[in-house]
Amino acid sequence: MQGKKQIVTRRDFLKVTGSSVAAVGAASNLEASLIQQDPKKARIATVGTGSRGIGMWGAPVVRDYSDRVQFVGLCDINGKRVKVAQRLLGKSISDMDGHLRSEEKTSPAQGNSQQIPVFTDFDEMVSTVKPERIIVTTMDSTHAQYVIRGMELGCNIICEKPFATDEEQCQAIIDAHKKHQKQVTVTFNARYGLSATKVKELLNAGEIGELYSVDYAEYLDTDHGTSYFRRWHGIKENSGTLLCHKASHHFDQLNWWIDSDPEEVSAFGELRRYGRKGPFRHANCRLCTHKKECPFYWDITKHEYLMDLYVSCESEDGYFRDGCAYRNAINIYDTMSVQVRYANKVLVTYSLNVGVPPEGQIIVFNGSKGRIELRNYARQPWKPPARAEIRLMRNLENDSTLIPVARREGSHGGSDKLIRDHVFIPDSPDPLKRRASVRAGIMSAIIGIAGYRSIERKTPIKIKDLVTI
Ligand SMILES: NC(=O)c1ccc[n+]([C@@H]2O[C@H](COP(=O)([O-])OP(=O)(O)OC[C@H]3O[C@@H](n4cnc5c(N)ncnc54)[C@H](O)[C@@H]3O)[C@@H](O)[C@H]2O)c1
Predict the structure, then answer these.
(1) Ligand 1 centroid to 52 CA: how many Å?
(2) What's the mean per-residue pLDDT of the chain?
(3) What is the residue with the minimal CA distance to atom 3 of ligand 1?
(4) DSSP annotation of 36
(5) CA 342 and chain centroid, separation
(6) What is the pTM (predicted TM-score) of this model?
(7) I need a labelling partner for 82 at 20 to 30 A (CA). Which of 119, 285, 337, 400 fits?
(8) Which ligand 1 atom lies nearest to the CA of residue 82?
């Protein structure tokens, strides 16, 4: 993160973070001895108590799955943030103003009835509260170390995407998984979208015959897109660029739809709008002298929840949640173009464009018998006919079939709830094979990694030259 520990270097890799804040450690031991464990419930613990750790894998889990699982520990490198998380997860869900997306606030429910023990040292947490499953929601470049250490300590793993941010991490996870054989789930919620699901069904049904190629264009608007440049994501060593952080969702969808392995990747990337390309800069928005003229000025003080979770914790690590999108340290790209060749000869052309209106996706599948066009509407100034539209066309036919995709309630279009059901209700059916394990996690991350290596080295990259699966 920025501040004291801005970049996790290769040397830090596999050396699990041990920056104990004495006060938290001491308190946590006391609390750990007080928590009553219910033998009927699976013991889970989280490392990384930021917005995803709380909003997706914290509060809704307490609300919806408390009959099955029990949080026994929370860990974060930031000793203040982990205490905020403890407080938030202990509150009534309906009181947790602003920190759940509005769609998540459906039913008031009680928070965790007991104080969850908190830690800043991962090993200490695991040895003290002995979780069966670890949820990894830390900064991207630190996932691998907790996935591996968690398995070494005997835990099953639930990990956010991207699974890893460089090829060494990928190989280390593959090797550790072979050795420890623990259950690992990578949480690709984008597989659960209604339009992604419909496309998978059409492809499985052979509606366009054999798949030949896919054109995937992703557009992030100035609001959503700029947010990546304000945060730790703007530093390649933290996020593996947006080709890992963001596009790992899309590369995973592609792998799942195409049902084959990527073999070779070629990419270009440019920084056109943000970072050093900006006309002026400051450390963060709050203190900036260019508030009036900056198109990306954003006032975090209006967001009570973010003030609590990030601003009140700045003294621990110096991390600004409202960092300047024009800061010189930004070394990722905002405009990217990637080509991928798969083992089954499918060719993919992918682009990721940040800071462009409107937000959404256009994805086209070309097959031996026809074509599927998918248009996902996320945010635009006009009212779209549906959440998404799928048009199915057949070769040599003048007509097409329009398949509207309904709007579904819930965060990420309801996908987050579905993936939580899959994760916490083990016997729930999975006809489209959406549960993703180590292989899927590696295969999506490695396309992004090969992408940024191709940009760095100005040459195509073969996946087999990066990892051995
Ligand atoms: N699937 C999705 O749709 C989705 C959406 C948002 C975020 N995410 C993923 O969730 C993860 C967390 O994202 P976020 O938005 O909550 O970020 P965040 O910055 O809000 O939270 C990350 C937390 O990790 C902590 N942390 C950083 N380095 C650490 C270390 N070495 N050890 C322990 N804790 C450490 C930070 O202090 C912070 O509290 C990321 O990997 C991100 O890619 C996924």
Answers:
(1) 6
(2) 90
(3) 189
(4) P
(5) 24
(6) 0.92
(7) 285
(8) 39
CATH class of the domain whose range is 191-274+331-465: alpha beta
Distance CA 66, CA 240 (A): 35
Q: In the structure, what pLDDT confidence band is assigned to residue 439 with cuts at 50, 70 and 90?
A: very high
Check if the beta carbon of residue 41 is closer than 8 Å to that of residue 68. yes
Domain extents in the chain: 3-138, 191-274+331-465, 275-317
C-beta of residue 153 within 8 angstroms of C-beta of residue 218: no
Pocket test for ligand 1, best of 84, 101, 139 (most atoms within 8 A of CB): 139
Which tokens in the block code for residue 434? 């959406």
Nearest to 254 by CA among 105, 153, 364: 364
Q: Compute, in angstroms, the gap from residue 49 CA to the centroid of ligand 1.
A: 7
Closest residue CA from atom 30 of ligand 1: 77
d(CA 283, ligand 1 centre) in Å: 21
- Closest to 372 in 3D by CA, of 190, 204, 208, 212: 208
Nearest-atom index, ligand 1, CA of 162: 43
Write out residues with Cβ below 6 Å of ligand 1: 1, 17, 47-53, 76-78, 81, 137-140, 142, 160-161, 187, 189, 245, 412
- Which residues are 184's β-sheet partners? 157
Name the CATH architecture for the domain at 3-138: 3-Layer(aba) Sandwich (3.40)
Residue nearest to atom 32 of ligand 1 (CA): 77
- Closest CA relative to residue 443, chosen from 266, 267, 259: 259
- Element (H or E) spanning 34, and its range? helix 22-34
Other CB atoms within 10 Å distance of the CB of residue 26: 11
> Are 184 and 177 a contacting pair, CB within 8 Å?
yes
Q: Kind of pairing, strands 359-367 and 347-354? A: unpaired
Give me the amino acid identity at 139.
M
Q: Which atom of ligand 1 is nearest to the CA of 54?
A: 16
Confidence of residue 5 (pLDDT cuts 50, 70, 90): very low
